[in-house]
Amino acid sequence: METLDTNSSKVKPKLIVLGAGESGVGAAVLGKQQGFEVFVSDSSEIKQGYKEQLKNEGVRYEEKRHTIEEMQTAGLVIKSPGIPETAPVIKYLREKGIRVIGEIEFAAQYTKAKTICITGSNGKSTTTMLTYHILKKAGLNVGLAGNIGKSFALQVATEKFDIYVLEISSFMLDDMYDFRADIAVLLNITPDHLDRYDYKMENYANSKFRITQNQRSEDVFIYCQDDPETLEGLKRIKINASMYPFSLKEKVAQGAYLNEQNEIIIKVPNHENFIMSINDLALQGKHNVYNNMASGIVAKVWELRNETIRESMGDFVNIPHRLEHVSRISGIEFINDSKATNVNSVWYALESLPGKIVLIMGGVDKGNDYNMLKEMVQKKVRGIVCLGKDNRNIHNAFEEDTEVIVNTATMSEAVQIAYHIAQKGDTVLLSPACASFDLFKNYEDRGDQFKAAVREL
């Protein structure tokens, strides 16, 4: 729990940045460049690389505390998306009426670049990377930021891109007020992070729809016609932008759909239709057809050549920790899907892989409902290897659906047991459905430990 520290002297009004991670340090650099007096405060220890960056920029900082006298003098606060509204420091700032915004909101004020903003419970990293890949391959001066890569603020301070493709999480959207996306993409809305939204799906959905706030008629909103929660949201939220749906189930007048020949058709007014067989996509699986549709609509709206779009969709290499092939040992495939931190992501992973699967899952459960996985587990999963401090929910959910459920305490143990359960032709899949911070630093650390353990077999 974060606490306020009361040992410090008062300073002049300034920009305070809460959280000294990628977004916070980027915001501090941009703030300094724009003439703010900047102070960075983190309730945890700051990583050495970020400390060096702050020192080089001449930015004052504190770690392992938030000092109340410093907070009192804030003119504006930029907070890390990971800090919840319930944190004492945020409650204090709200009570004092001090404005609190996110890094994306702050950085957008200092660039004239166009923004393509992508959100969704699942697939946003892949779709963001794919969209960036298509635009870059077309020769556009494009940056990649948000929940991925270098922070938006740092790039606004140090680069001169014409376009940014931004991966935007619901936590980021909660701290955005005046920001306007030129193109907004909402891939899907499935239960995730409900602990931050009073366990109410409508609250979480409303957060996702903030991607459309402030959009005008000349802007674009791309969304999934097949997603029930998105369709519910559209009943209560007014969209001002031009709307382009995508669907695997029905033909749409404009947007993207799948025809009887399993070809993606993309229709944008006043442009030649785009057609591509799903068999030619670099990324396979139903969920990736959706991701390609969304990216393809962005590319068509941007008036890119069909040939460029087709080439890019055919040669794209996915991000690490997202259905990443690690190795093949004794006829058994090992796949790292550590980025799958919710139930829906695991469903997509199971759906996209052939044959029988030994599933390594578990971690910090964010209020997961495992029911949607039951049929897939019955059909495809040979055994489940639990990796986490508390696996009761997984046992309760699947004890009747698979023959083997085993608890493990380390990644090395989990990989070894999964290897012994698996048979030739099977896949050992790390797809946790949970956050990583009970046993690992983050999902990258979890995925890296999985890859290291596989190499030791």
Automatic annotation (TrEMBL):
Report the locations given in the UniProt record: Cytoplasm
Catalysed reactions, as listed in the record:
UDP-N-acetyl-alpha-D-muramoyl-L-alanine + D-glutamate + ATP = UDP-N-acetyl-alpha-D-muramoyl-L-alanyl-D-glutamate + ADP + phosphate + H(+)
| Keyword vocabulary terms for this entry | ATP-binding, Cell cycle, Cell division, Cell shape, Cell wall biogenesis/degradation, Cytoplasm, Ligase, Nucleotide-binding, Peptidoglycan synthesis
Its primary localisation, in coarse terms, equals cytoplasm
GO CC term, one of those recorded: cytoplasm
* Superkingdom of origin organism: Bacteria
- Which EC number(s) does UniProt give? 6.3.2.9
Pathway listed for it is: Cell wall biogenesis; peptidoglycan biosynthesis
Which Gene3D superfamilies does its entry note? Answer: Mur ligase, C-terminal domain, Mur-like, catalytic domain, NAD(P)-binding Rossmann-like Domain
Q: What does this protein do?
A: Cell wall formation. Catalyzes the addition of glutamate to the nucleotide precursor UDP-N-acetylmuramoyl-L-alanine (UMA).
Question: What name appears for this protein in its UniProt entry?
Answer: UDP-N-acetylmuramoylalanine--D-glutamate ligase
* Protein species of origin: Olivibacter domesticus
- Underlying gene: murD
